[in-house]
Amino acid sequence: MKLYERLMTIDRRIIYGILLAVVMLPLIFPSVVKVTPMSPVEKLFTAVDNTTDDKALILDCSYSPQIKAEVEPMAIAVLRHAFKTRKKVLVLSLYVEMIGLATRAINQVVEEFNATAQTYEDSIIYGRDYVFLGWQPPPIVPMLGMGESISNIYVVDYYGNETDTLQMMERIRNYNDISILVALSGSRIPISWVAYAQNRYGLAVGVGCTAVSGADFYPYYQTGQFTGLMVGMKGAAEYEELVEANYAVKGRRIASEAMLSLTYAHLAIMLFIVIGNIGFFLHRRKK
Amino acid sequence: MKKTIPLTLIFIAGLLGVISFVIPHPSYQVYDEWIRNDLLRVLSAFAVVLALGSLLRVHFDKIRRKRKNWQFSWLLLVAFGASAIIGLFGGVAADGILPTTIGSFPFDIQTLYENIVIPLASSMFALLAFFMASAAYRAFRVRSMEATLLLGAAFIVMIGVLPLGYSISQHLPGFVQWILNVPNVAGQRGIVFGIALGVVATSLKIILGIERAWLGGGE
What's the pLDDT tens digit per position in B112-168? Predict the structure, then answer.
């Protein structure tokens, strides 16, 4: 077999094996890689940070298990930021299959904070600091309906409590009392938030999305319809960096730990593309 | 009649949906609120029941006729039944009438979701990286000027979004942001305009009864 043929026909098992090794090794021996936050993530961080005491932020956890690796660290980072700075948080999911992931993220961060809390005031209390609204189909109903009344749409929360009876909800009635909605999703849900909730009620929308859908969202970020944008694992790592740098919140930084895997995986894929093209050039020259 | 009623309904529903965005008068908004918050929710509840019924019918039928891979339909039905019973009677926070632990082994809906659904779905999606790497190696060839530009931009973005990009040059991440913010947005915006016009045209055709494929039943 000639050299160019060898270069162009590497066995796919070799490619899979090398990719597996470069992804797994940094995960087996994790280390946090420092990242430099870029402007889209900084803007989102600032918008969450600027939530005043009389307002709340909504976290829409509409991400499925398939994209959990990329988007769950975003949910955890935003919740850590919000709880550390004592922002009131409303959590919801627009689809039922995502409820479990939202529950998981909330439980993890609440446990982290309450494990170190000394007093009742320090603790993160359900109903006082956050409310889990759950799921209300179809998505257009909460998107538009919360503009008029949140408790009319979510009459009871995920755990069956009457939303109106919760302490936090006394002052949070509709989008006028919401500083920003952070939509975490791998689909076009954030665009629907803009189309319905922002156009009609002026709700500020921030986004956390997968790397593949990031390019689709830049037009909305450029126009200011998205206040800020976290794209992929790197976006999550940048938000983690901002939370730790500004508020010294300690906790496992999953996205930052995965940066090495991501780096090596990108380099491996690029290397394979280069090898394939060298073979292609040699073959073309031969012809 | 079979076609006239659905066509009339879609015409009225479509028109009401559009009008609500252009008539901000409170009296109409109250009516619009009722349509969205009450009627739409009732309709979607029916849709869920219909979808579940349809799913069960398809799989029962597959088992009865012993169609290809009919055994997997049993798996679906058992998983469906088990999760429905545990979800309905076990409660969302394991606080229902059905006990959701055997000794120290929990099987409430959240535990099942975290230990079965999440790993299965994540694993399936993770395989994509391997296929993408293999496909990129085999298919990404610099055959033309356009392909060269695409490859060049892809390499710059792939490196620039990594922490490595900042180490190579402090300006590289900024350049990547420029690629995403300017050339990418220019292309994306053109596509979005095209899609939006297509959606408007298709919606109008459906509302006015010109497009009838959604009614089903072929001719």
Answer: 999 999 999 999 999 999 999 999 999 989 889 999 999 999 999 999 988 888 889
Chain segment A236-280, per-residue pLDDT in tens: 999 999 999 999 998 889 999 999 999 999 999 999 999 999 999
**Is B213 part of any domain?**
no
For residues B55 and B5, state if they share a domain: yes
> End of a domain among B42, B65, B88?
B65
Last residue of a domain, one of B9, B42, B65: B65
3-state SS of chain B is CCCHHHHHHHHHHHHHHHHHHHCCCHHHHHHHHHHHHHHHHHHHHHHHHHHHHHHHHHHHHHHHCCCCCHHHHHHHHHHHHHHHHHHHHHCCCCCCCCCCEECCEECCHHHHHHHHHHHHHHHHHHHHHHHHHHHHHHHCCCCCHHHHHHHHHHHHHHHHCCHHHHHHCCCHHHHHHHHHHCHHHHHHHHHHHHHHHHHHHHHHHHHCCCCCHHHCCCC
Architecture of domain A33-252: 3-Layer(aba) Sandwich (3.40)
- Same domain for B45 and B79, yes or no, is no
**Segments forming the whole domain that contains residue B32:** 1-65
B38 occurs within a structural domain: yes
Touching A: B residues 121-180, CB under 8 Å: 121-122, 124-126, 129-130, 132-134, 136-138, 140-142, 151, 155, 158-159, 161-164, 166, 173, 177, 180
Question: Which pTM was predicted?
Answer: 0.90
Measured between beta carbons, the chain B residues lying within 8 angstroms of A65 are 117-118, 120-122, 125
